[in-house]
Amino acid sequence: MTAMTDSQKLQYIAARAADARVNVELETEGMTLNLGPQHPATHGTLRIVARLDGEQVIAAEPVAGYMHRGYEKLAEVRNYAQITTLVNRIDWLGSFANEVPFILAAEQLMEIEAPPRAQWIRTILFEMSRLANIVLFLGDMGVQLGAVTPAFYAFRDREFVLDQIERVTGGRFHPNFDRIGGLKDDLPKGWIADTKSAMDKVRDFCDEIEELFMNAEIFDARMRGVGVIPQDIAMQYGLSGANARASGIDWDLRRDNPIGLVYNELDWKVWTHVDGDSYARFWVRLQEVREATKMIDQLCDGLPSGPIMAKVPRIIKVPEGEAYIATENPLGEMGYYIVSQGGLTPFRVKIRSASFNNVSIVPWILRGVYIPDIISILGSIYFILGDIDR
Amino acid sequence: MTDDTTTTEAETEEVPEPRDEAREELLAKLQEALGDSLLDSHIVVDRDIWIRVTPEAWQNTARVLREQFGARYFGFLSAIDWMPSPYGRSHDSAVDNELLPPKEDELLPDAPAEPDTEATGDAAVTDGDADASEDESSIEAPAGTGEAKYETGFAGGETRFQVFARVASVGEPNNHWGITVKADVPEDTLTVDSWTSVYAGADWHEREAWEMFGINFEGHPGLRNMYLPSGFKGNPLRKDFPLVSRQIKPWPGIVDIEQMPETEEEDAPSEGSEA
Question: Which of A344, A350, A383, A385 is nearest to A365 (CA)?
């Protein structure tokens, strides 16, 4: 009960306060500002139509759909192996992570379990796609605020991660490596040692970023206290991943529901932050990158031997049933709700992507902020357009 | 999962079937809270739980889950069209029927006339009857508008369209659970109540379901297009909305019929038995 009234109250106050501030301070003629669809701050083709009063946003409406590719419809006419090729393109910075929940859901319906080694390698690649994704975010956040240098560091150091992914899967961005029952291939020779040195480089990158940002006055001014998302609002909108954890929600699917991946065997920590502002979101992601490098080190050390593929029929037919599997992807909770009526193709696939929920909070959060804050808020919420539009 | 209570009553069952006490307890509580409006349920042990409620109770269920059960986290909301595709499962059954090893031998002799060979001709190397069941899954709609009971999934259903949503309880250590709620959408009105007054985040999801399935959400602040251009006609995720590229070109799975050279002789006979 209380949660309900609290949230309503909060929403009400935020909305009214924005209006009141605008009205009292300055009576100006309204203006509509169109950001995007092609705007560097929008990570692709998100368009934001903001109604302004002076420098303040009265209402903002994200317009998605410039990259809608209809994967849910396409998945209905493709077999399971082909769908992984599609879903690779949802969050294109962390592609491998898109495949995993889909494969896990199909495996659950087929009652197949990948052999331990495959699960470990999956977890390694899963975390590596997290690195590839979030490292870029850390650099990109600087660009949003006008500091171009960190982006170059990010692109430089992400390359170490992508190289390792490429050596295993053959693809830098779209590995399409996960199979029902296991993986396409085993790790190449010498990969583990190189990965560990790549992790050292990523850790150095984190230190570098921390030095660059964390005590910078401008960074603080632009990020602290900007775009605060209270916990209850975050839950209502289904925010997940670092966005939720930055609002103090201690929830990580890797720890709390690690289906098919081996996070339980590792020693790591879920970082949360109480502030819920842009700074907190940045900080949580920075810590997450560090945790991920530690996890990959542990995974490389403990990698069991054995087969990488379970026994599966060559023609994948998934029995009737429904399953929803979600994993903690770089951007947040990504899940697939698969309805199978038997046969080679799923009857319906609902793709629950993280960015869709994360961005749906934008109209709420942009009310009453100043124009420059739009950029830092959008940057810190961090979305990939393919992950919104699917 | 939380397995703190009611272990004993599960033990009394003589059948050593796996049970899911935590979810059964949740279901019992939900039954109590929702009463008659809870129509059906389904539990996959240690995995997940589904419930189906009456359309009238759709919004109330959300409220009950959020306020009484602590499921404050909104996952997603969407819809399913249970009508079998009027375009047949041609993309599916053709390959299904002939590639399943038990049936393969029966189907191989009667390679029928192929309706659309030009695109598949080169791909169907080992299987000349790649389009074997193209004829049985007729292109015409099999009277999909009738009152036929649709084949539905977990927790059943009576109508063509169902809305379903997932909410979860998160944030408290060792008490994480999620639940999928379904409700039939009345055929005549295609309207259910909006969840936006309970979970503000349902806004975009309902817009998407409205646009993709044509389901109205009563009380939604503004149903407008999410992805499609504003003048778009039709609801793309409905089963009777044709995927044009698939109509003019056979489905790409046919290419997969080509068998791997080495697997063909080795494990071709045995693979059907192992699941």
Answer: A383
Q: Is A235 helix (H, G, I), strand (E, B) or coil?
A: helix
State how far the Cα of A357 lies from the Cα of A64, in Å rounded to an integer. 12
**Chain centroid offset of residue A60 CA:** 23
Whole-Å CA distances, A317 to A38, A81, A341: 42, 11, 10
- What gap in Å lies between CA B59 and CA B66, rounded to an integer? 11
Cα–Cα nearest to B83, from B229, B217, B214: B214
Which of B1, B41, B67, B72 is best to mutate for the A interface (most A CBs within 10 A)?
Answer: B72
* Residue A365 CA: distances (Å) to CA of A62, A276, A277, A381, B157: 12, 12, 11, 10, 38
Q: What is the DSSP string of A326-380?
A: EEEETTEEEEEEEEE-SSSS-SEEEEE-HHHHHHHTHHHHTTT-BHHHHHHHHHH
Q: What integer pLDDT is reported at residue A15 of this predicted model? A: 77
Sheet holding B161-169, edge to edge: B38-44, B48-53, B177-184, B161-169, B73-81
Lowest mean pLDDT among A17-21, A214-218, A365-369, B130-134: B130-134
Looking at residue B137, its pLDDT comes to 37
Chain A CA closest to residue B68? A1
**Looking at the predicted structure, is the pLDDT value of residue A195 above 80?**
yes
CA within 13 Å, CB half, A63:
17
Find the CB nearest A73 among B44, B243, B263: B243
- Helix axis angle, A80-87 relative to A95-110, nearest 10°? 150
pLDDT for A132 beyond 70: yes
CB atoms within 10 A of CB B64: 20
User: How many other CB atoms are found less than 10 A from the CB of residue B2?
Assistant: 13
pLDDT per position as a tens digit, A27-83: 556 778 877 776 655 566 778 888 887 788 888 888 888 888 888 888 888 788 888
B173:A250 CB<8 A: yes
Are the beta carbons of B96 and A344 closer than 8 angstroms?
yes
**Region A347-358 average pLDDT:** 89
Q: Which two tokens stand for residue A136?
A: 């870029």
Average pLDDT over chain A reads 84
> Chain A residues with CB inside 8 Å of B100's CB?
315, 317
Position A109 pLDDT exceeds 50: yes
Q: Tell me the C-alpha distance between A253 and A328, whole Å.
A: 5
Q: What is the per-residue pLDDT for A306?
A: 86
Question: From CA A125, how far away is CA B17, in angstroms rounded?
Answer: 36
Torsion of the alpha carbons at B206, B207, B211 and B212, rounded to the nearest 10:
-40
Selected residue with higher pLDDT from B139 and B212: B212
With beta carbons less than 8 A apart as the criterion, state whether B187 and B159 touch. yes
A137 phi and psi, to 5 degrees? Answer: -60, -45
Average pLDDT over residues A195-204: 90
